[in-house]
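User: Here's a chain of 304 residues. Predict its fold as tokens.
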Amino acid sequence: MIDIGTNSILLLIARWNNSGELETVKQAFSVTRLGDSISRDGVIREDAIDRSMKVLEEYENMARRYRAAKLYVIGTEMMRRAKNAQLFCRMVNKKFGWNVTILSGEEEGRLTYAAAVGGIGGDDQPVMVVDVGGGSTEIVRGIGCQIQSALSLPLGVVRLAENTHMCANLSKLQYLELASEIRASVENSRAFISIAPDTKFIGSGGTITTVAAIKEKMTTYDPEKINGYALTHKDLRAIYRQLNQLSLAERKNLPGMVPGREDILLYGIIIFIVLIELTGLTKIYVTDRGLRYGYLLNIKNTGD
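Assistant: Prediction complete.
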């Protein structure tokens, strides 16, 4: 399946093994910045469409090589907001024959939650899953597998970066202003009322997996090692300071850095820092199994 996001397009080729578990066959990730300038004029630019079409063509060939039986294509926040999203979907359908399913914020959060809890586990304890994307942040709370509330906030790494003119290194004042903006948005949503101290905080998305990979100095990304990895508030602050002292060129050479994230990663880290501070929790457990896994699990469970 293919997930068309604000910052990148992701491919997951998976299969159900003999134990009934979803097993990864192949993953791919390409930064296309399809959502660049969306916050300014609400339109997907032609150059971004061209980049995305080339990536989709590569993924079509990859899916053919791996003999994928069926391909699902989904769109998230950027596709919900863009004025010409339907035009882009028609272009994809005409070129590849694929129908793009645009998920609502609530659907996105629910499916991400199911994947996170299924991949890490929450048993019967309170769970909060936070998925930081390019254009939005989904916050879903529940008890074990049962969702209690889902919320989509207009806080994403690309949107925040664009608001500061893609500033590579942030001053203390800029950090405080961004943190205040994030805090106000979350508190206004009433998303953090009565957070139980035993709540399991699970982080999903490219920001948090990249932070874990950088902390582990991974030269080759290992999803099995990342899934369930614990990050503290101290870890997040340390990685933020480390990155903020480096140029974009220096960040690219860091073990664990995903190409294309070096200019926006700081902004995602700030979101997670603010959230862990608001909750008062001590750890964020990282999940490598995000929306794509949740979507496929839902298809299996519903028979769609």
